[in-house]
Amino acid sequence: MYSSSNLEHHGSFNELKRLKIKHVRNVKGPTEMYLQPNTTSQELGWHYKEHFTMSQKPSWTYIERWPIIQNEMTRFVDHMKRNDRDFILF
Length: 90
What we know:
Elements lengths: L1 E3 L8 H9 L2 E3 L3 H4 L38 H12 L7
Parallel strand pairs: 1-2
Pfam family, one: SPMIP11
InterPro entries: SPMIP11
């Protein structure tokens, strides 16, 4: 598969057709080449630069977590292992 970083859409349908047949793809995605979506189906998920940048993290992506390292059962098993040599959990 060929790819070229200097590929641009020149407006020529024949050139676009030739590149499609040769499987030449542009390294840049459509959001990097165009400021607005080309079709209405691309509007979903299209990020405008003034609204969202990749350096910003949306508030819903971060969830503060407080894991319980030792729960009640873990403390019980640890206590029984220390005090009873014959203790078997299962």
